[in-house]
Amino acid sequence: MTWDEWEQLKTAAVENRSAAMELNHVPDEGGAPAPGGDLKVDQQDLAAVGDAAFKLFDNLGKNGRDAWSISQTAAKDLSTQGFALGGALDHVQDRWEKQLKTLLDACAHISNHMDFTKGAHAGDEYYIYGIVSSISTLDDGFTERTQR
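Structure (tokenized):
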């Protein structure tokens, strides 16, 4: 596909776009979109995702290598006896180990990110509360001043 073809496809997609194509929004029952979208998350949601990622990390770390020594022994025995299956089994075991490490890294990243996000949002909530309460105090001062 050339660059011009890609640009034509993008232009056609924009021209043919309908409200039904919005993926980040679900219309209200009345059909009108909700102002500001409808995606919400709370501390419990973040904690549940982080907890699930940590449990998966923990279980994979404990049980993900259970068959490693048996597989390595079998691969060595098969190779020693001249079977090509030994090399294939060793290759599968190497691939399993690489995939397991990738998955463990991803789980750790998700868990750590959720912990960070919880803390960041808690800080944001505290900051916003401080700003809003300051505005309320300021409003009270204006109200008091106008009533004199």
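Residues 41-146 form one domain. The mean pLDDT is 77.
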